[in-house]
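Complex 237.
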Amino acid sequence: MNLATPEAWSAVQFEAQLRAQGAGYHIHHPFNVRLNAGHCRPEEIRCWVANRFYYQLCIPRKDAAIMANMPDREDRRLWVQRILDHDGSGDYSGSEAGGIEAWTRLAEAVGLSRQELQSLRHVVPGVRFACDAYLNFARQAPWQEAVCSSLTEMFAPQIHKDRLASWPLHYPWIEAEGLQYFRSRIPLASRDVEHGLRVTLTHFTTAAQQQRALEILRFKLDILWSMLDAIEKACRP
Ligand SMILES: O=C(O)c1cc(C(=O)O)c2c(n1)C(=O)C(=O)c1cc(C(=O)O)[nH]c1-2
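Predicted structure with pyrroloquinoline quinone bound:
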């Protein structure tokens, strides 16, 4: 029996292990594959947009929960930007209107009114439970673990790029302006990941901690995956 403590990975190896979890990203979910291949009907796209809105609403709330657990001013100064990215600042028609406003414009571009979107009446229980699980994790976990859970954003630029490349071809009825949310997230996700990785690589240093980080990332991948399971079932025409 080998009782020796397993050796920790180097930062490079650990980051590679984190990135390898991308195999479980919802980019590979059958609903996402169908959506980006142009096989969804307008009602399905509206249903996806309406359900995903609940995730959009939860993101700045979970970021506020993480920030509340950060004792260090320097960490909060960086983190507060994530809240502003989604909630926006200043005028709702200005360039700093924020991600929730941009998602609302996406909704309008696919044929959902602002009022219908904001009523949350299309949000199904499975999506609510998945998003709430993310929010509750962020409230309760040590802040470095909650930061680690945001690292699914490593894989997000590709999913946004896929939508920008394929939607105009397959869904020309959606006004191109409506896709601005996806465009805006590409640089923001990369910036978030740079910070999130810095925290994760310096906090999870033993072999056991590194395994814990992988578990956290898989938990978050499962949240995204189960959202699409629920959406796929609810949005079937
Ligand atoms: O469209 C997507 O597939 C997708 C996925 C994710 C993600 O990987 O969690 C995020 C986003 N978009 C996104 O737009 C976003 O702002 C975002 C923030 C976070 C996070 O965990 O803090 N994830 C994501």
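Residues 140 and 146 are 9 Å apart (CA to CA).
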